[in-house]
Specification:
The chain has about 450 residues and is of the alpha+beta class. The protein is built from twelve helices and 19 strands. The strands form four sheets. The protein has an eight-stranded antiparallel β-sheet with strand order 12-13-14-15-16-17-18-19, with no helix packed on it. The protein has a seven-stranded antiparallel β-sheet with strand order 2-1-11-10-9-8-7, sandwiched between helices. A two-stranded antiparallel sheet has the order 3-6. The longest helix is centred in the first third of the chain and has 18 residues. The mean pLDDT is about 95.
């Protein structure tokens, strides 16, 4: 049975309204709509507008710009999960003849391929797609600005290549793949490549006068995979819930977790921000947020989620500049997280336990450092310091008596219990590290051996 969403406190709601009111007023946006969800359920919506008696709601479409890139990344990850490609594959293997084929698919997803930020010629966001009918027109004669794989350099043409990759492998247009593989399974009926009523119009506001001018709304053609989509706060919060927990109809929880993990180095001066596989990653007030910002002439957008808090926030506005939509969305999320911390689920014992795994629980030693192995749900384990700081990772069960690291220092590493011929456990092996039941156990294969004199005091 689905429980109704818990209502936010009046003080929290007022703080959220105040934040978007300041953003719309100071940013001078014709309208702004925002929403927050907790554990997949909308707990607050708000809007501000310059039109008396009318305000956008959670079903009004705005253009979301580069949030589109996250949708495109999901399509690529689906191809990977189906075994149709590997993220380490060079683009040339699946989409030959682009002139940028040496770049790997993962590098395109993380903007580390060294490609130019924009297309040559006219500003692509405000000009006809007919000016760029081929990938050669999108990339130009000098597609690279940096050595491949050396740095993070945001690239809109890079995501055009990914959209064309999806079309090549699937054999259908990008928009069709998007609709059948993401939008329909997740029920995102108000997300589309072309605007559908009701939708906001895009406006440019004069920087030094309170007057406006309508912005053109171009179809982006080949560039669609980088920024074409229109959506609503309701749909984007549903998409955020998927990006937190996964959905087996689209992508597993493990794959969306991989998307949220940093895959590109942070640029100097960018603070604690990075980029995953189609998702921006940043730290705000000590919280790790994942999501994406977006902008196209006439529109700005921001979407962030916090897995730890179970929260997501969206802000959409119809102005070319002025409203820092991504910053406002992060502020809304942090406001709720700090004013109303997540209430933990009641503790419950495990429904069942493997006795052989239970025997591994408790203290272990890496050299002289004490760590504890704790059992978690679904056969997983957690390994971390008994006290104080140090390396900590969660591990998922592989079904064969081994575990694979999910995060932290040991992400991707294999943990296994090494047993003696009689079945008793000799030690844990984790990426060549030996963990023993007592410090430098002489009965375990400790690398470098154990001094035969054993532990001793200071000679007098």
């Amino acid at each position: 049975m689905t429980m109704p969403p818990e209502e936010l406190l009046p003080t929290t709601r007022r703080a959220l309204v105040h934040r978007i009111a300041v953003a719309q007023s100071e940013g001078r946006s014709p309208s702004l709509v925002a929403a927050v969800a907790r554990d997949g359920q909308v707990v607050w919506t708000g809007s501000r507008t310059s039109v008396d008696g009318h305000g956008p709601d959670e079903n009004v479409q705005y253009r979301i710009g580069s949030i589109t890139k996250t949708f495109t990344a999901v399509l690529v990850m689906r191809l990977r999960d189906e075994g149709l490609l590997d993220l380490g594959d060079p683009l040339e293997k699946h989409l030959p003849g682009t002139g940028a084929g040496e770049v790997s698919i993962a590098e395109l997803l993380a903007h580390t391929g060294g490609l130019a930020a924009e297309t040559p010629g006219e500003w692509w966001e405000r000009s006809s797609a007919a000016l760029r009918p081929t990938l050669g027109d999108v990339l130009g004669e000098r597609p690279f600005r940096h050595p491949v794989g050396r740095r993070h350099h945001y690239s809109n043409p890079g995501y055009t290549l990914l959209g064309s990759l999806v079309e090549k492998v699937r054999g259908v247009p990008w928009e069709q793949a998007l609709r059948t593989e993401i939008l329909e399974p997740l029920g995102l009926s108000r997300t589309s490549a072309q605007p559908q009523m009701p939708h906001a119009g895009g406006w440019a506001v004069h920087p030094y006068a309170d007057v406006m001018m309508p912005e053109p709304s171009e179809d982006l053609g080949l560039m669609a995979a980088a920024g074409q989509l229109w959506s609503t706060t309701k749909d984007l919060l549903a998409f955020a819930a998927f990006l937190m927990a996964g959905d087996e109809r689209v992508l597993s929880a493990e794959s969306v977790r991989e998307m949220r993990a940093p895959a590109a180095p942070a640029l100097p001066g960018s603070g604690e921000s990075s980029y995953g596989l189609g998702m921006q990653v940043l730290t705000a007030n000590g919280r790790t947020l994942a999501g994406h910002s977006g902008s196209l002439p006439g529109f700005v957008a921001g979407l962030w989620l916090s897995e730890e808090d179970g929260l997501a926030a969206v802000v959409l506005a119809n102005c070319t500049s002025g409203v820092p939509a991504a910053t406002v969305a992060a502020d809304l999320l942090v406001t709720v997280a700090e004013a109303e911390p997540r209430i933990p689920e009641p503790w419950r014992p495990l429904p069942e336990v493997d006795v052989s795994v239970l025997g591994l629980a408790g203290p272990w030693y890496w050299g002289t450092q004490a760590v504890a192995l704790r059992l978690t749900t679904e056969g997983g384990v957690d390994l971390g310091p008994v006290a104080g700081g140090g390396r900590r990772s969660r591990f998922r069960a592989n079904g064969d008596g081994t575990w694979t690291g999910l995060d932290g220092y040991y992400a991707g590493e294999l943990l296994q219990a090494v047993r003696r011929p009689d079945g008793s456990v000799s030690h844990l092996d984790l990426g060549s590290f030996v963990f023993t039941r007592k410090p430098y156990d002489e009965d375990a294969p400790v690398p470098g051996g154990v001094d035969p004199e054993g532990w001793q005091g200071m000679p007098q």
